[in-house]
Design brief:
The structure is a single chain. With 421 residues, the protein is an alpha+beta fold. The chain folds into two domains: 2-46 and 269-418, no CATH class; 62-251, no CATH class. 47% of the residues lie in helices and 18% in strands. The chain has twelve helices and 13 strands. The protein has helices at residues 2-12, 14-51, 82-88, 168-174, 212-219, 238-249, 258-266, 273-301, 303-311, 316-352, 384-410, 414-418; strands at 56-60, 70-72, 79-80, 93-107, 114-122, 148-153, 163-167, 181-184, 187-197, 208-211, 224-225, 227-232, 253-257. The chain is elongated, with a radius of gyration of 31 Å.
């Protein structure tokens, strides 16, 4: 009976109902949209790290060096190969591998000019970590997709030297097939495999993958790498890894994990996600005051009605339940509408803004033969926890405003209320 009576009372006061629902819907929509976008970006970034079988990426960033036939990609700098082993020795680190990202310039047959090929020197022994992994790490779910797949040929061997695995896109653009020779800088390589990069972003992605020792020979600067992939046993090892990187590489060391890549990638306007969450909390608080004020004003308008109810036998607890039920209706409807709108805003963000890896993690130049695999596989799908949190927040606001209204109504004496008839 109370719920039916409460619905009639709630629906009858359309202006106040719309005001309460609108305030709740806007605040919940903002909260759901930010939470969904943040979670989706984190998952997309996590997918790019998972594709490499890593939790961290360590680089050193400097100003670009002058042109040469073989140069380090973009604004990266050389890191001593000994750092790879030093990071591996940190307690809590499961695996590491070093990659040498290069641009190898060779003559373009169509234009006659020099065009770069993006080359990644990888350790053929490390098949479960890095930009061209083909094995799952120990304990990894069988459902997890690995970064790269050999569609034709074989993976690099530790005994290989001037052998290369190239992506299918690159082979198609250069009209190459398995067993052909391809020119990378001043050297000729035999193609031993074609790779299918399974969509999405790839950290240190390349058009050609060659043995690390051969890449170091091409660059002729000794035992160096440009990127270190780190897989952790425990997340608490991250600070120690950062400390080792800063000590051995210097102040220009760049350690990127899922958290800081996500912050750089989301780009939700010019403020950070934490600031947006703080704004959402403030909006929720203001909406709480708005809905509570609306509920209290409703009590003031309904003094006569409440007096009649009490005079006809309604107890204070019955009146309290009635007002609480009306506020809960506003909370439920506002929560549902706000959640739906928030999911829509997150989906709209995903269609308008395409998150991508930060430029420092993409090795491709603007003039590369094929397009850089830098687009993150963004899907604005809210988690059950986000939806539950939104509904709980709306119900809490409705319950608190109903409680405040019932407290005020309980203080009304039937005789005093009836005098206002």
């Amino acid at each position: 009976m109370i719920w039916s009576y409460a619905w009639k009372g709630f629906a009858r006061r359309k202006t106040r109902a719309v005001l309460a629902i609108s305030g709740l819907a806007i605040s919940i929509a903002l909260l759901v949209a930010i939470a969904t976008i943040s979670r989706s970006v984190r998952e997309a970034v996590g997918a790019s790290l998972e594709a490499a079988g890593a939790d961290l990426v360590i680089q050193k960033v400097v100003k670009p060096c002058p042109w040469s036939q073989v140069k380090i990609a973009k604004d990266l700098a050389a890191i001593d190969g000994a750092v790879v082993d030093a990071v591996k020795d940190v307690e809590g680190v499961k695996n590491t591998t070093g990659v040498l990202d290069l641009w190898a310039f060779s003559e373009d047959k169509d234009t006659g000019g020099q065009k770069p090929t993006v080359v990644a020197g990888i350790d053929p022994r490390k098949k479960s970590i890095g930009p061209a992994r083909v094995q799952k790490a120990e304990g990894e779910s069988e459902q997890d997709e690995s970064c790269c797949a050999v569609t034709e040929g074989r993976y690099l061997l530790p005994t290989d030297d001037f052998h290369a695995m190239v992506t299918e896109d690159y082979a198609r653009a250069k009209n190459l097939k398995l067993g052909d020779k391809c020119q990378l800088g001043p050297y000729s390589f035999e193609i031993v495999a074609l790779l299918d990069l399974k969509g999405g972003a790839h950290i240190s992605g390349a058009e050609a993958f060659i043995p690390l020792k051969t890449a170091q020979q091409m660059y002729d600067k000794g035992d160096i790498v440009t990127t270190i992939f780190v897989s952790l046993k425990q997340s608490r090892a991250l600070p120690q890894v950062e400390e080792v990187a800063a000590t051995l590489i210097g102040p220009k060391a760049s350690v990127k994990s899922e958290a800081n890549i996500g912050e750089a990638t989301a780009a939700l306007a010019v403020v950070t996600q934490r600031t947006l969450f703080a704004i959402s909390a403030i909006v929720l608080t203001l909406v709480l005051f708005l809905v509570a004020k609306t509920a209290l004003a409703s009590v003031a308008e309904r003094v006569s009605e409440i007096g009649i109810l009490k005079a006809t036998g309604w107890r204070d607890s019955d009146v309290s339940r009635l007002l609480s039920a009306e506020s809960l209706y506003a909370g439920v409807i506002g929560g549902i509408v706000g959640t739906a709108v928030g999911i829509g805003l997150a989906f709209l963000y995903g269609t308008v803004v395409q998150p991508a890896l930060p430029p420092s993690l993409v090795s491709y130049p603007e003039c590369s033969t094929t397009e850089a695999p830098k687009a993150l596989p963004f899907q604005a799908l809210p988690s059950g926890w986000v939806l539950l949190g939104a509904v709980v927040a709306a119900l809490v606001i409705g319950s608190l405003s109903g409680y405040l209204a019932s407290r005020r109504a309980a203080k009304l004496l039937p005789a005093e209320a009836l005098r206002q008839l």
